[in-house]
Design brief:
The protein is of the alpha/beta class and 358 residues long. Helices cover 29% and strands 26% of the residues. It contains twelve helices and 19 strands.
């Protein structure tokens, strides 16, 4: 079986190999034939060590495909079903799930430490307990979410992570108010989805902030009212809000420097929504006076900040109705053998989302 493998954390290239086997199939498990998968920035963050992940591993967690086989006790899907991959399935029994905060369930994270592939040289892990840069993958049945027949695999793959994360940040976590002012710092696939979410909620001004000109131009087509480079954000704040700051600012980069900028760009009493996944040793500094005096709400958003199954259904309904544009998020397509081209496209900022067709 073919798969793209990272041998050691810190390497910037993946090796596409033909000697990989999906393992772990049994009760409560399903085997999926992956048809399409998106390259998410979290995959790159795991490769360079920003996000913890044992190696060697197969990146990829934003995928969709067909069920090949189901283990004993699996009733939610059957062979032949079309599914998207949920990298953070809810167990339904932990305290977070019982509180209705299924996006905070830790059961899925436990899978990241269990190898679900092997090679002649030993075990291979799947990123976030999945690993979709491969032809086949074995995951818990809860990771396989059925999709309607009219949803293409590439669109379903995007909904499996980036779209759900960005839309949910605006709709669930921040709950953007109609008529408000919004800034989104970082306009890749997740940032663009946050822009679409803010537009859906009725934001009056949406400023897209990104150092890459092509991404700024693209953001205007998804609902941003203007787009600026990072060094022009201060001017936009002055022009649009008379220097007060934006009602909502979304940080979709995952760095303390941009989070600090986002905090300073948020008005007093406004909302800063942290969407980007950052490193364990990257600390955001706030002094106790400003934290108290400014009364800014700091809201982290994990996987869209809501029940992911509900979020998937909402995204599909909005896409069907033409209220969100998902096709245009896919700016590049490659085959699995060309995975390193996709990595270059992400690192250079030329791609919003690259779809790997398998």
């Amino acid at each position: 079986m073919r798969a793209a493998v990272l041998h050691e954390i810190g390497q910037d290239k993946l090796e596409v190999l033909d000697d990989v086997e999906a393992v772990g199939f049994g009760p409560g498990k399903v085997k999926i034939r992956v048809r399409a998968t998106g390259l998410c920035h979290s995959d790159v963050s795991a490769m360079n060590g920003v996000l913890p992940q044992p190696a060697p591993f197969i990146p990829g967690h934003e995928g969709a495909g067909e069920i090949l086989d189901v283990g004993e006790g699996v009733t939610n899907v059957k062979p032949g079903d079309r599914v998207l991959v949920c990298w953070l399935p809810a167990c339904g029994a932990c305290p977070a799930c019982k509180r209705g905060q299924t996006q905070l369930c830790l059961a899925g994270f436990m899978n990241a430490g269990i190898p679900n592939f092997k090679r002649p040289g030993g075990d291979v892990f799947g990123f976030a307990g999945t690993g979709t840069f491969t032809e086949e993958v074995v995951v818990d049945a809860g990771c396989a979410v059925p999709i309607p027949d009219d949803v293409p695999f590439d669109i379903a793959a995007l909904i499996g992570c980036g779209v759900t994360t960005g839309l949910g940040a605006a709709i669930n976590t921040a709950d953007v108010a109609a008529g408000s002012s919004v800034a989104v710092i970082g306009c890749g696939g997740v940032g663009i989805s946050a822009i679409q979410g803010a537009r859906l909620k009725g934001a009056a001004q949406i400023v897209a902030v990104d150092p890459v000109a092509s991404r700024r131009e693209a953001a205007l087509g998804f609902g941003a009212t203007e787009a600026v480079a990072p060094d022009a954000l201060g001017d936009a704040k002055q022009r649009i809000t008379a220097g007060e700051g934006f009602d909502y600012v979304f940080e979709v980069v995952g760095k303390s420097a941009t989070a600090r900028t986002a905090y300073e760009t948020t008005r007093r009493g406004g909302t800063l929504c942290i969407v980007g996944a950052g490193a364990l040793d990257d600390f955001l500094q706030l002094n106790m006076f400003e934290l108290f005096f400014d009364e800014k709400k700091i809201l982290p958003s994990m996987y869209g900040g809501g029940d992911v199954l509900t979020s998937y259904e909402r995204a599909i309904a909005l896409w069907r109705a033409g209220r969100i544009d998902l096709e245009s998020l896919i700016t590049h397509r490659v085959q699995l053998a060309e995975i390193n081209e996709a990595l270059d496209q992400m690192r250079s900022g030329t791609a919003l989302r690259t779809c790997i067709e398998i």
